[in-house]
Design goal:
Layout lengths: L1 H11 L5 E3 L1 H9 L6 E5 L3 H7 L12 E6 L2 E7 L1 E6 L5 E6 L3 H6 L9 E2 L5 E2 L4 H7 L1 E2 L5 H7 L2 H13 L2 E2 L1 H10 L8 H10 L5 H11 L5
Parallel strand pairs: 2-4, 9-10
Antiparallel strand pairs: 1-2, 3-4, 5-6, 7-8
Helix pairs in contact: 6-8, 7-9
Length: about 220
């Protein structure tokens, strides 16, 4: 299925870059089923819209465009650098780039920064393959800084750990304990989305954690 997505995109954008990344590449490598198709590209949302007129531009200001090709919903994220997080969730400044290495810097965990090229080459700038093998959730960059940028990463780390059966890296776990109070700043709807993405038989673990963090949150 991944090969057919590359082929279909290349028919529309023959000279541009596409990489399968994020949860799609992670689950593909692990041999898990997946329904989400996440790709990084050098194309901007406006350039995508020029060729695919019905592209969903809801999150275009963050460099994210959703298209449907052969009944498959595909999320195309323009490769970018992010700076100046001001609301504990979204970057205040985005710079589109043409290099997957720069794009990888903004991603949360090493296992989510594995890029699959159309040639079949695996591009792994932060050792995500080794962390998949070892079963570790490890933050890219300084864990405290990255959690302070976006505290939702605390819940995402726990969700990935539960869903994949992985352990959380000790440095990241220490940072989670230091910064867990920042969860109180998050939109409850975003927290609920993370809970709903957790395996049903493991959701109670996240809910209990949140109750201990803020009794009034749930």
């Amino acid at each position: 299925m991944i090969n057919s997505i590359f082929l279909n995109l290349k028919k529309i954008f023959p000279n541009d870059k596409f990489y399968v990344v994020g949860g799609t590449s992670r689950d593909y490598i692990l041999g898990k089923e997946f329904n989400d198709y996440d790709l990084a590209t050098n194309l901007t949302p406006d350039e995508i819209k020029e060729k695919i007129s019905d592209a969903d531009m809801t999150f275009a200001k963050y460099g994210v465009t959703t298209v449907t090709i052969n009944n498959k919903k595909i999320t195309l994220a323009t490769m970018r650098k992010e700076k100046q997080y001001t609301d504990y969730r979204h970057p205040g400044k985005i710079e589109f780039v043409d290099d997957y290495l720069l794009d990888a810097e903004r991603r949360d965990f090493t296992v989510n920064a594995i890029y699959l090229a159309p040639s079949g080459e695996i591009l792994d700038p932060y050792g995500g393959l080794e962390d998949l093998r070892l079963g570790i959730i490890r933050m890219i960059g300084d864990p405290d800084k990255r959690l302070q940028e976006d505290p939702l990463r605390i819940i995402r780390a726990i969700r990935f750990s539960l869903n994949l059966g992985f352990v959380i890296d000790s440095d990241l776990m220490t940072a989670i304990k230091r910064n867990k109070h920042l969860i109180n700043l998050l939109n409850p709807r975003k927290i609920e989305e993370e809970i709903n993405k957790t395996n049903e038989n493991k959701r109670s673990i996240i809910i209990e954690y949140l109750k201990k963090t803020n009794e009034n949150m749930l």
